[in-house]
Amino acid sequence: MINKYRSHNCSEINEKDVGKTVLISGWLHRKRDHGNLLFIDLRDHYGLTQCVIENKSKYFPILEKSKPETVLNIEGKVVKREKGTENLNLSTGKIEVSINSVIILSESKELPMPVFGEQDYPEDIRLKYRFLDLRREEMHRNIVLRSKVVSFIREEMFKLGFLEFQTPILTSSSPEGARDFLVPSRLNKGKFYALPQAPQQFKQLIMVSGFDKYFQIAPCFRDEDARADRSPGEFYQLDIEMSFVEQEDVFKVVETLMVNLFKKFSSKKIVNEKFPRIPYQEAMLKYGTDKPDLRNPLLIHDITKIFTREDVKFDIFKKQVKSGSSVRCIVAKKTNDKPRSFFDNIDKWAKEQGASGLAYFTIEQKEKISSKGPIGKFFSEESIKEIMKISKANINDSIFFSCGKIEDIEKILSISRNKIAKDLKLIDENKFSFCWITDYPMYELNTETKKIQFSHNPFSMPQGDIAKLDFKNPLEIKAYQYDIVCNGVELSSGAIRNHIPELMYKLFSIAGYDKNHVDEKFSGMINALSFGAPPHGGIAPGLDRMIMLLADEKNIREITLFPMNQNAQDLMMNAPSEVDPKQLNELNIKIDKKKD
Q: Could you tell me the pTM of the whole model?
Protein backbone atom coordinates (compact mmCIF):
# COMPACT_ATOMS: atom_id res chain seq x y z
CA MET A 1 0.00 0.00 0.00
CA ILE A 2 1.37 3.42 -1.02
CA ASN A 3 1.45 6.06 1.74
CA LYS A 4 -0.83 8.92 0.68
CA TYR A 5 1.44 11.54 2.23
CA ARG A 6 4.89 10.65 0.92
CA SER A 7 6.94 8.38 -1.25
CA HIS A 8 10.14 9.91 0.10
CA ASN A 9 11.14 12.03 3.07
CA CYS A 10 12.69 15.44 2.58
CA SER A 11 16.31 14.32 2.87
CA GLU A 12 16.50 11.20 0.72
CA ILE A 13 15.78 12.45 -2.81
CA ASN A 14 18.98 12.75 -4.88
CA GLU A 15 20.32 12.67 -8.43
CA LYS A 16 19.37 9.00 -8.83
CA ASP A 17 15.73 10.08 -8.61
CA VAL A 18 15.90 12.61 -11.46
CA GLY A 19 12.90 12.05 -13.74
CA LYS A 20 10.82 10.32 -11.04
CA THR A 21 7.52 11.64 -9.74
CA VAL A 22 7.63 11.88 -5.94
CA LEU A 23 5.23 12.68 -3.15
CA ILE A 24 6.61 14.58 -0.15
CA SER A 25 5.04 16.25 2.88
CA GLY A 26 6.32 18.72 5.42
CA TRP A 27 6.38 22.29 6.67
CA LEU A 28 6.86 25.34 4.48
CA HIS A 29 10.28 26.31 5.81
CA ARG A 30 10.75 29.37 3.63
CA LYS A 31 9.88 30.63 0.15
CA ARG A 32 11.58 32.88 -2.39
CA ASP A 33 9.47 34.65 -5.02
CA HIS A 34 11.37 35.28 -8.27
CA GLY A 35 8.36 36.64 -10.11
CA ASN A 36 7.66 33.93 -12.64
CA LEU A 37 9.05 31.26 -10.29
CA LEU A 38 8.35 30.52 -6.63
CA PHE A 39 10.89 28.43 -4.71
CA ILE A 40 9.70 26.51 -1.64
CA ASP A 41 11.94 24.85 0.94
CA LEU A 42 9.91 21.97 2.33
CA ARG A 43 11.09 20.62 5.70
CA ASP A 44 10.30 17.48 7.63
CA HIS A 45 12.03 15.68 10.51
CA TYR A 46 14.73 14.38 8.15
CA GLY A 47 15.76 17.45 6.18
CA LEU A 48 14.94 19.89 3.38
CA THR A 49 13.91 19.59 -0.26
CA GLN A 50 13.72 22.59 -2.57
CA CYS A 51 10.54 22.70 -4.67
CA VAL A 52 9.76 25.08 -7.53
CA ILE A 53 6.52 26.15 -9.25
CA GLU A 54 5.85 28.41 -12.24
CA ASN A 55 3.42 31.32 -11.97
CA LYS A 56 1.21 29.83 -14.70
CA SER A 57 0.34 26.86 -12.43
CA LYS A 58 -3.07 26.94 -10.77
CA TYR A 59 -1.32 26.06 -7.49
CA PHE A 60 0.93 29.12 -7.65
CA PRO A 61 -1.56 31.49 -5.89
CA ILE A 62 -2.13 28.90 -3.15
CA LEU A 63 1.57 28.67 -2.34
CA GLU A 64 2.08 32.41 -2.78
CA LYS A 65 -0.47 33.06 0.01
CA SER A 66 0.66 30.23 2.30
CA LYS A 67 2.37 31.34 5.49
CA PRO A 68 5.60 29.82 6.81
CA GLU A 69 5.07 26.56 8.76
CA THR A 70 1.95 25.64 6.79
CA VAL A 71 1.96 21.85 6.30
CA LEU A 72 1.98 20.88 2.62
CA ASN A 73 1.65 17.73 0.57
CA ILE A 74 3.51 18.17 -2.71
CA GLU A 75 3.61 15.97 -5.81
CA GLY A 76 6.17 16.71 -8.44
CA LYS A 77 8.93 15.62 -10.76
CA VAL A 78 12.55 15.45 -9.61
CA VAL A 79 14.79 17.61 -11.82
CA LYS A 80 18.46 18.44 -11.66
CA ARG A 81 19.31 21.94 -10.46
CA GLU A 82 21.00 24.27 -12.90
CA LYS A 83 24.77 24.48 -12.56
CA GLY A 84 25.78 27.08 -10.00
CA THR A 85 22.52 26.80 -8.05
CA GLU A 86 23.37 23.59 -6.19
CA ASN A 87 23.52 23.63 -2.39
CA LEU A 88 26.24 21.17 -1.40
CA ASN A 89 25.40 21.60 2.29
CA LEU A 90 22.20 19.61 1.73
CA SER A 91 21.90 15.94 0.82
CA THR A 92 19.17 17.05 -1.60
CA GLY A 93 21.15 20.06 -2.80
CA LYS A 94 21.71 18.91 -6.41
CA ILE A 95 18.05 18.40 -7.21
CA GLU A 96 14.69 20.13 -6.84
CA VAL A 97 11.08 19.05 -7.22
CA SER A 98 9.06 20.68 -9.98
CA ILE A 99 5.61 20.94 -8.41
CA ASN A 100 2.67 19.32 -10.21
CA SER A 101 0.10 19.59 -7.41
CA VAL A 102 -0.22 20.81 -3.81
CA ILE A 103 -2.56 19.94 -0.95
CA ILE A 104 -2.62 22.10 2.18
CA LEU A 105 -2.77 19.64 5.08
CA SER A 106 -2.75 22.27 7.84
CA GLU A 107 -2.55 26.04 7.67
CA SER A 108 -0.35 28.05 10.03
CA LYS A 109 -1.25 31.32 11.68
CA GLU A 110 1.19 34.22 11.83
CA LEU A 111 4.20 32.93 13.78
CA PRO A 112 5.10 34.43 17.18
CA MET A 113 8.71 33.46 16.41
CA PRO A 114 10.27 32.28 13.14
CA VAL A 115 11.48 28.74 12.67
CA PHE A 116 13.79 29.60 9.79
CA GLY A 117 17.10 30.95 11.05
CA GLU A 118 18.69 30.52 14.46
CA GLN A 119 18.07 33.94 16.01
CA ASP A 120 17.91 34.01 19.79
CA TYR A 121 14.49 34.79 21.22
CA PRO A 122 13.35 35.61 24.77
CA GLU A 123 12.96 32.60 27.04
CA ASP A 124 9.25 33.19 27.69
CA ILE A 125 8.45 33.16 23.95
CA ARG A 126 10.57 30.07 23.30
CA LEU A 127 9.01 28.11 26.16
CA LYS A 128 5.42 29.17 25.52
CA TYR A 129 5.76 28.10 21.89
CA ARG A 130 8.16 25.23 22.53
CA PHE A 131 6.61 23.18 19.71
CA LEU A 132 7.83 25.88 17.30
CA ASP A 133 11.18 26.25 19.03
CA LEU A 134 11.74 22.50 18.63
CA ARG A 135 11.26 22.78 14.88
CA ARG A 136 14.39 24.93 14.65
CA GLU A 137 17.35 23.04 13.24
CA GLU A 138 19.70 23.27 16.22
CA MET A 139 17.04 22.41 18.80
CA HIS A 140 15.74 19.54 16.68
CA ARG A 141 19.28 18.20 16.30
CA ASN A 142 19.89 18.37 20.08
CA ILE A 143 16.75 16.39 20.89
CA VAL A 144 17.61 13.75 18.29
CA LEU A 145 21.07 13.57 19.88
CA ARG A 146 19.44 13.05 23.27
CA SER A 147 17.45 10.08 21.96
CA LYS A 148 20.51 8.51 20.35
CA VAL A 149 22.59 8.98 23.51
CA VAL A 150 19.95 7.26 25.65
CA SER A 151 19.73 4.34 23.19
CA PHE A 152 23.51 4.02 23.07
CA ILE A 153 23.81 4.05 26.86
CA ARG A 154 21.25 1.25 27.14
CA GLU A 155 23.13 -0.87 24.61
CA GLU A 156 26.46 -0.31 26.39
CA MET A 157 25.03 -1.11 29.83
CA PHE A 158 23.58 -4.38 28.56
CA LYS A 159 26.98 -5.23 27.06
CA LEU A 160 28.56 -4.59 30.46
CA GLY A 161 26.21 -7.13 32.05
CA PHE A 162 23.68 -4.78 33.65
CA LEU A 163 19.92 -5.30 33.89
CA GLU A 164 17.46 -2.41 33.60
CA PHE A 165 14.79 -2.04 36.31
CA GLN A 166 12.26 0.68 37.11
CA THR A 167 11.91 1.96 40.67
CA PRO A 168 8.81 3.61 42.23
CA ILE A 169 7.88 7.21 41.53
CA LEU A 170 5.60 7.54 44.57
CA THR A 171 7.72 6.98 47.66
CA SER A 172 8.44 8.39 51.12
CA SER A 173 9.98 11.73 51.99
CA SER A 174 13.66 11.77 52.92
CA PRO A 175 15.17 14.06 55.57
CA GLU A 176 18.39 14.37 53.57
CA GLY A 177 19.11 16.29 50.39
CA ALA A 178 17.00 18.88 48.61
CA ARG A 179 13.37 19.87 49.10
CA ASP A 180 10.84 17.17 48.14
CA PHE A 181 7.87 17.42 45.83
CA LEU A 182 4.96 16.07 47.91
CA VAL A 183 1.90 14.22 46.62
CA PRO A 184 -1.17 13.98 48.90
CA SER A 185 -2.74 10.56 49.41
CA ARG A 186 -6.52 10.31 48.87
CA LEU A 187 -6.84 6.92 50.57
CA ASN A 188 -4.57 7.75 53.50
CA LYS A 189 -5.90 11.03 54.81
CA GLY A 190 -3.38 13.60 55.94
CA LYS A 191 -0.43 11.62 54.57
CA PHE A 192 1.82 12.35 51.63
CA TYR A 193 4.03 10.56 49.14
CA ALA A 194 7.21 12.21 47.88
CA LEU A 195 8.52 12.09 44.33
CA PRO A 196 12.02 10.54 44.44
CA GLN A 197 14.96 12.92 44.51
CA ALA A 198 16.88 9.86 43.31
CA PRO A 199 16.24 6.10 43.52
CA GLN A 200 19.00 5.88 46.17
CA GLN A 201 17.38 3.52 48.68
CA PHE A 202 15.59 1.47 46.04
CA LYS A 203 18.72 0.77 44.04
CA GLN A 204 20.49 -0.39 47.19
CA LEU A 205 17.51 -2.60 47.99
CA ILE A 206 17.84 -4.12 44.51
CA MET A 207 21.35 -5.21 45.46
CA VAL A 208 20.12 -6.56 48.80
CA SER A 209 17.50 -8.48 46.80
CA GLY A 210 20.25 -10.49 45.15
CA PHE A 211 20.56 -8.77 41.76
CA ASP A 212 24.13 -8.04 40.77
CA LYS A 213 24.19 -5.09 38.34
CA TYR A 214 21.35 -2.60 37.91
CA PHE A 215 20.87 0.50 35.81
CA GLN A 216 18.01 2.83 34.98
CA ILE A 217 17.50 6.06 33.05
CA ALA A 218 15.86 7.45 36.16
CA PRO A 219 13.64 10.52 36.48
CA CYS A 220 14.48 12.51 39.62
CA PHE A 221 12.49 15.31 41.24
CA ARG A 222 13.88 18.09 43.42
CA ASP A 223 12.16 21.32 44.37
CA GLU A 224 15.25 23.43 43.68
CA ASP A 225 15.90 26.76 42.01
CA ALA A 226 16.96 26.68 38.38
CA ARG A 227 20.54 27.01 37.17
CA ALA A 228 22.09 26.81 33.72
CA ASP A 229 22.96 23.14 34.33
CA ARG A 230 19.96 22.16 36.43
CA SER A 231 16.23 22.12 35.71
CA PRO A 232 13.92 23.52 38.42
CA GLY A 233 11.98 20.35 39.09
CA GLU A 234 12.91 17.22 37.23
CA PHE A 235 15.97 15.77 35.59
CA TYR A 236 17.26 12.41 34.45
CA GLN A 237 20.27 10.42 35.55
CA LEU A 238 21.92 7.17 34.57
CA ASP A 239 21.43 5.32 37.83
CA ILE A 240 23.94 2.50 38.42
CA GLU A 241 24.48 0.08 41.31
CA MET A 242 26.71 -3.01 41.57
CA SER A 243 27.23 -5.75 44.17
CA PHE A 244 30.53 -7.11 45.51
CA VAL A 245 32.53 -4.17 44.19
CA GLU A 246 35.17 -1.76 45.36
CA GLN A 247 35.63 1.83 44.23
CA GLU A 248 37.87 0.90 41.28
CA ASP A 249 35.28 -1.54 39.92
CA VAL A 250 32.76 1.30 39.65
CA PHE A 251 35.40 3.54 38.05
CA LYS A 252 36.22 0.92 35.42
CA VAL A 253 32.58 0.56 34.33
CA VAL A 254 31.95 4.32 34.18
CA GLU A 255 35.22 5.07 32.36
CA THR A 256 34.43 2.41 29.74
CA LEU A 257 30.97 3.86 29.22
CA MET A 258 32.08 7.50 29.12
CA VAL A 259 34.95 6.91 26.70
CA ASN A 260 32.73 4.93 24.31
CA LEU A 261 29.89 7.45 24.60
CA PHE A 262 31.96 10.59 24.08
CA LYS A 263 33.92 9.03 21.21
CA LYS A 264 30.67 7.99 19.54
CA PHE A 265 28.94 11.36 19.69
CA SER A 266 31.75 13.91 19.55
CA SER A 267 34.90 14.52 17.52
CA LYS A 268 36.59 16.20 20.49
CA LYS A 269 39.64 14.47 21.94
CA ILE A 270 39.44 12.74 25.34
CA VAL A 271 42.60 13.83 27.17
CA ASN A 272 43.03 10.75 29.41
CA GLU A 273 40.98 7.62 28.82
CA LYS A 274 41.96 6.45 32.29
CA PHE A 275 40.63 9.36 34.28
CA PRO A 276 42.98 10.95 36.85
CA ARG A 277 42.08 10.35 40.51
CA ILE A 278 42.36 13.55 42.55
CA PRO A 279 41.81 13.48 46.33
CA TYR A 280 39.31 16.09 47.50
CA GLN A 281 41.82 18.02 49.63
CA GLU A 282 44.28 18.17 46.74
CA ALA A 283 41.56 19.42 44.38
CA MET A 284 40.58 22.20 46.77
CA LEU A 285 44.22 23.29 47.12
CA LYS A 286 45.23 23.10 43.44
CA TYR A 287 41.99 24.26 41.85
CA GLY A 288 39.90 25.84 44.64
CA THR A 289 37.00 23.57 43.71
CA ASP A 290 36.02 19.91 43.56
CA LYS A 291 34.80 20.51 40.00
CA PRO A 292 38.08 21.42 38.26
CA ASP A 293 38.39 22.04 34.54
CA LEU A 294 41.61 20.15 33.81
CA ARG A 295 41.91 21.71 30.37
CA ASN A 296 43.04 24.76 32.32
CA PRO A 297 46.78 24.40 33.14
CA LEU A 298 46.79 27.06 35.89
CA LEU A 299 47.31 25.83 39.45
CA ILE A 300 46.82 27.38 42.87
CA HIS A 301 49.63 27.30 45.46
CA ASP A 302 49.64 27.97 49.19
CA ILE A 303 52.34 30.53 50.05
CA THR A 304 51.12 31.56 53.51
CA LYS A 305 54.54 30.99 55.10
CA ILE A 306 56.12 33.61 52.81
CA PHE A 307 54.27 36.29 54.75
CA THR A 308 55.97 35.34 58.00
CA ARG A 309 59.36 36.41 56.58
CA GLU A 310 61.09 39.57 57.79
CA ASP A 311 62.10 40.58 54.24
CA VAL A 312 58.46 40.71 53.06
CA LYS A 313 57.02 44.16 53.81
CA PHE A 314 53.49 43.70 52.48
CA ASP A 315 51.91 44.51 55.85
CA ILE A 316 48.26 44.18 54.78
CA PHE A 317 48.72 40.44 54.14
CA LYS A 318 51.18 39.96 57.02
CA LYS A 319 48.69 41.26 59.57
CA GLN A 320 45.93 39.01 58.22
CA VAL A 321 48.24 35.98 58.28
CA LYS A 322 49.10 36.70 61.93
CA SER A 323 45.38 36.61 62.74
CA GLY A 324 44.90 33.23 61.06
CA SER A 325 44.33 34.03 57.38
CA SER A 326 45.98 32.12 54.53
CA VAL A 327 47.53 33.29 51.26
CA ARG A 328 47.30 31.41 47.98
CA CYS A 329 48.37 32.38 44.50
CA ILE A 330 47.97 31.62 40.79
CA VAL A 331 50.91 31.73 38.38
CA ALA A 332 50.22 33.03 34.87
CA LYS A 333 53.07 31.99 32.57
CA LYS A 334 54.99 34.43 30.34
CA THR A 335 52.75 37.44 30.87
CA ASN A 336 55.48 40.08 31.23
CA ASP A 337 54.47 41.60 27.89
CA LYS A 338 50.86 42.12 28.94
CA PRO A 339 49.76 45.75 29.39
CA ARG A 340 48.88 47.13 32.81
CA SER A 341 45.21 47.09 31.76
CA PHE A 342 45.24 43.26 31.56
CA PHE A 343 46.13 42.98 35.26
CA ASP A 344 43.92 45.86 36.39
CA ASN A 345 40.92 44.37 34.59
CA ILE A 346 41.37 41.06 36.43
CA ASP A 347 41.69 42.90 39.75
CA LYS A 348 38.55 44.92 38.95
CA TRP A 349 36.69 41.77 37.90
CA ALA A 350 37.62 40.05 41.21
CA LYS A 351 36.14 42.99 43.13
CA GLU A 352 32.94 42.66 41.10
CA GLN A 353 32.75 39.02 42.28
CA GLY A 354 32.66 40.20 45.89
CA ALA A 355 36.36 39.75 46.70
CA SER A 356 38.70 42.50 47.86
CA GLY A 357 40.55 42.13 44.57
CA LEU A 358 43.66 40.24 43.48
CA ALA A 359 47.11 41.60 44.33
CA TYR A 360 49.73 40.85 41.68
CA PHE A 361 53.27 41.30 40.46
CA THR A 362 55.39 40.10 37.52
CA ILE A 363 58.80 38.49 38.04
CA GLU A 364 61.67 40.03 36.09
CA GLN A 365 65.44 39.80 36.04
CA LYS A 366 67.87 42.53 35.13
CA GLU A 367 70.86 42.62 37.42
CA LYS A 368 68.93 40.56 39.94
CA ILE A 369 65.51 38.94 40.33
CA SER A 370 62.81 41.45 41.28
CA SER A 371 59.11 42.02 40.84
CA LYS A 372 57.20 44.80 39.12
CA GLY A 373 53.62 45.78 39.76
CA PRO A 374 51.59 47.45 42.51
CA ILE A 375 52.96 45.23 45.29
CA GLY A 376 56.30 44.27 43.74
CA LYS A 377 58.35 46.66 45.90
CA PHE A 378 57.34 44.82 49.09
CA PHE A 379 59.27 41.65 48.25
CA SER A 380 63.00 40.97 48.49
CA GLU A 381 64.90 38.91 45.94
CA GLU A 382 65.13 35.99 48.35
CA SER A 383 61.40 36.02 49.11
CA ILE A 384 60.63 36.10 45.39
CA LYS A 385 62.93 33.12 44.85
CA GLU A 386 61.09 31.27 47.61
CA ILE A 387 57.72 32.04 45.97
CA MET A 388 59.14 30.83 42.64
CA LYS A 389 60.29 27.59 44.28
CA ILE A 390 56.89 26.86 45.87
CA SER A 391 54.78 27.88 42.87
CA LYS A 392 57.17 26.73 40.11
CA ALA A 393 57.07 30.24 38.67
CA ASN A 394 59.78 31.51 36.30
CA ILE A 395 61.15 34.84 35.15
CA ASN A 396 58.50 36.75 33.13
CA ASP A 397 55.62 34.97 34.89
CA SER A 398 52.97 36.92 36.80
CA ILE A 399 51.54 35.94 40.17
CA PHE A 400 48.07 36.78 41.47
CA PHE A 401 47.53 36.66 45.26
CA SER A 402 44.49 36.29 47.50
CA CYS A 403 44.47 36.47 51.30
CA GLY A 404 41.68 35.56 53.74
CA LYS A 405 39.74 32.61 55.10
CA ILE A 406 40.37 29.35 53.26
CA GLU A 407 36.79 29.04 51.98
CA ASP A 408 36.84 32.63 50.66
CA ILE A 409 40.22 32.15 48.96
CA GLU A 410 39.10 28.90 47.35
CA LYS A 411 35.97 30.55 45.98
CA ILE A 412 37.66 33.56 44.39
CA LEU A 413 40.77 31.76 43.12
CA SER A 414 38.68 28.97 41.59
CA ILE A 415 36.77 31.39 39.38
CA SER A 416 39.86 33.60 38.89
CA ARG A 417 41.75 30.58 37.59
CA ASN A 418 39.08 30.14 34.90
CA LYS A 419 38.91 33.87 34.17
CA ILE A 420 42.68 34.23 33.71
CA ALA A 421 42.87 31.09 31.57
CA LYS A 422 40.10 32.35 29.28
CA ASP A 423 41.68 35.79 28.98
CA LEU A 424 44.97 34.12 28.05
CA LYS A 425 43.17 31.66 25.71
CA LEU A 426 44.67 28.65 27.49
CA ILE A 427 41.61 26.36 27.35
CA ASP A 428 41.32 24.00 24.39
CA GLU A 429 37.61 23.83 23.59
CA ASN A 430 38.17 20.74 21.42
CA LYS A 431 38.97 18.47 24.36
CA PHE A 432 37.15 16.55 27.05
CA SER A 433 39.13 16.24 30.27
CA PHE A 434 37.59 13.86 32.80
CA CYS A 435 38.70 13.21 36.36
CA TRP A 436 37.57 11.51 39.55
CA ILE A 437 37.48 13.48 42.79
CA THR A 438 37.98 10.98 45.61
CA ASP A 439 38.45 10.70 49.38
CA TYR A 440 35.70 13.09 50.42
CA PRO A 441 35.39 13.74 54.16
CA MET A 442 32.52 11.80 55.70
CA TYR A 443 31.46 14.88 57.66
CA GLU A 444 31.77 18.63 57.55
CA LEU A 445 31.16 21.44 60.01
CA ASN A 446 28.12 23.59 59.30
CA THR A 447 29.54 27.12 59.46
CA GLU A 448 26.22 28.58 60.66
CA THR A 449 25.11 26.03 63.25
CA LYS A 450 28.65 24.84 64.12
CA LYS A 451 27.25 21.31 64.11
CA ILE A 452 28.67 18.27 62.35
CA GLN A 453 26.71 17.11 59.32
CA PHE A 454 27.18 14.64 56.48
CA SER A 455 29.23 16.16 53.68
CA HIS A 456 27.83 13.99 50.88
CA ASN A 457 25.80 10.79 51.05
CA PRO A 458 24.91 9.51 54.55
CA PHE A 459 24.76 5.93 53.27
CA SER A 460 28.48 5.86 52.31
CA MET A 461 31.05 3.47 53.70
CA PRO A 462 33.83 5.14 55.69
CA GLN A 463 37.41 4.36 54.70
CA GLY A 464 39.81 2.34 56.82
CA ASP A 465 39.50 -0.48 59.31
CA ILE A 466 35.94 -0.24 60.67
CA ALA A 467 37.04 -1.57 64.05
CA LYS A 468 39.65 1.18 64.41
CA LEU A 469 37.75 4.25 63.20
CA ASP A 470 38.35 7.35 65.34
CA PHE A 471 34.79 8.48 65.99
CA LYS A 472 36.12 11.11 68.44
CA ASN A 473 37.55 13.03 65.47
CA PRO A 474 34.77 12.58 62.88
CA LEU A 475 36.03 15.40 60.64
CA GLU A 476 39.11 13.25 59.98
CA ILE A 477 37.04 10.31 58.67
CA LYS A 478 37.11 9.94 54.89
CA ALA A 479 34.47 8.10 52.92
CA TYR A 480 34.44 5.99 49.79
CA GLN A 481 32.67 8.83 48.00
CA TYR A 482 33.62 10.10 44.58
CA ASP A 483 32.54 12.58 41.92
CA ILE A 484 33.11 12.38 38.20
CA VAL A 485 33.90 15.72 36.56
CA CYS A 486 34.37 16.73 32.91
CA ASN A 487 35.55 20.16 31.74
CA GLY A 488 34.58 21.70 35.08
CA VAL A 489 31.10 20.15 35.06
CA GLU A 490 30.17 17.74 37.84
CA LEU A 491 28.44 14.82 36.15
CA SER A 492 27.73 12.75 39.21
CA SER A 493 28.40 11.77 42.78
CA GLY A 494 28.69 8.15 43.83
CA ALA A 495 29.86 5.97 46.71
CA ILE A 496 30.56 2.54 48.06
CA ARG A 497 27.60 2.00 50.38
CA ASN A 498 27.50 1.26 54.06
CA HIS A 499 25.87 -2.19 54.28
CA ILE A 500 26.37 -2.69 58.06
CA PRO A 501 23.36 -1.52 60.17
CA GLU A 502 25.26 -1.00 63.44
CA LEU A 503 27.85 1.13 61.69
CA MET A 504 25.08 3.15 60.07
CA TYR A 505 23.50 3.88 63.47
CA LYS A 506 26.89 5.06 64.74
CA LEU A 507 27.58 7.32 61.76
CA PHE A 508 24.11 8.86 61.93
CA SER A 509 24.46 9.49 65.67
CA ILE A 510 27.55 11.63 65.01
CA ALA A 511 25.40 13.81 62.74
CA GLY A 512 22.75 14.15 65.45
CA TYR A 513 20.28 11.42 64.46
CA ASP A 514 19.36 8.88 67.13
CA LYS A 515 18.47 5.22 66.49
CA ASN A 516 14.72 5.85 66.59
CA HIS A 517 15.03 8.59 63.98
CA VAL A 518 17.04 6.34 61.65
CA ASP A 519 14.58 3.47 62.13
CA GLU A 520 11.66 5.77 61.36
CA LYS A 521 13.09 7.52 58.31
CA PHE A 522 15.01 4.62 56.77
CA SER A 523 13.03 1.64 58.05
CA GLY A 524 13.00 -0.17 54.70
CA MET A 525 16.74 0.21 54.26
CA ILE A 526 17.76 -0.73 57.84
CA ASN A 527 15.41 -3.70 57.87
CA ALA A 528 16.78 -5.01 54.56
CA LEU A 529 20.41 -4.61 55.61
CA SER A 530 19.67 -6.73 58.68
CA PHE A 531 19.00 -9.83 56.55
CA GLY A 532 22.37 -10.18 54.84
CA ALA A 533 23.47 -7.42 52.47
CA PRO A 534 26.33 -7.62 49.96
CA PRO A 535 29.01 -4.92 49.81
CA HIS A 536 27.79 -2.67 47.02
CA GLY A 537 28.30 0.70 45.41
CA GLY A 538 27.26 2.84 42.52
CA ILE A 539 26.95 6.20 40.87
CA ALA A 540 24.39 8.20 38.85
CA PRO A 541 25.81 10.42 36.08
CA GLY A 542 23.46 13.23 35.06
CA LEU A 543 22.07 12.50 31.61
CA ASP A 544 21.22 16.12 30.91
CA ARG A 545 24.73 17.35 31.73
CA MET A 546 26.37 14.68 29.59
CA ILE A 547 24.22 15.68 26.63
CA MET A 548 25.00 19.38 27.27
CA LEU A 549 28.70 18.58 26.91
CA LEU A 550 28.17 16.48 23.78
CA ALA A 551 25.92 19.12 22.18
CA ASP A 552 28.32 21.89 23.27
CA GLU A 553 25.48 23.77 24.95
CA LYS A 554 25.73 25.98 28.05
CA ASN A 555 22.11 25.73 29.19
CA ILE A 556 20.15 22.61 30.04
CA ARG A 557 17.09 24.12 28.33
CA GLU A 558 18.75 23.56 24.96
CA ILE A 559 18.80 19.77 25.31
CA THR A 560 15.46 19.26 27.09
CA LEU A 561 12.20 18.71 25.22
CA PHE A 562 9.81 20.66 27.44
CA PRO A 563 11.69 22.53 30.17
CA MET A 564 10.23 24.87 32.76
CA ASN A 565 11.28 28.49 33.13
CA GLN A 566 13.37 29.96 35.95
CA ASN A 567 10.27 30.13 38.17
CA ALA A 568 9.48 26.42 37.72
CA GLN A 569 6.54 27.19 35.41
CA ASP A 570 5.54 25.37 32.25
CA LEU A 571 4.36 28.30 30.12
CA MET A 572 3.11 26.04 27.34
CA MET A 573 0.85 23.85 29.51
CA ASN A 574 0.17 26.53 32.15
CA ALA A 575 1.55 24.53 35.06
CA PRO A 576 1.44 24.75 38.00
CA SER A 577 -2.19 25.80 38.04
CA GLU A 578 -5.10 25.95 40.44
CA VAL A 579 -7.24 22.82 40.64
CA ASP A 580 -10.94 22.19 41.04
CA PRO A 581 -12.12 22.48 44.69
CA LYS A 582 -13.69 19.03 44.29
CA GLN A 583 -10.23 17.52 43.80
CA LEU A 584 -8.96 19.26 46.92
CA ASN A 585 -11.92 17.99 48.93
CA GLU A 586 -11.19 14.41 47.87
CA LEU A 587 -7.65 14.89 49.16
CA ASN A 588 -8.80 16.54 52.40
CA ILE A 589 -6.80 19.65 51.53
CA LYS A 590 -7.79 23.23 52.23
CA ILE A 591 -5.85 26.11 50.69
CA ASP A 592 -4.96 28.88 53.13
CA LYS A 593 -3.58 31.72 51.06
CA LYS A 594 -1.27 33.94 53.08
CA LYS A 595 -0.50 37.48 52.07
CA ASP A 596 3.09 38.19 51.03
A: 0.91
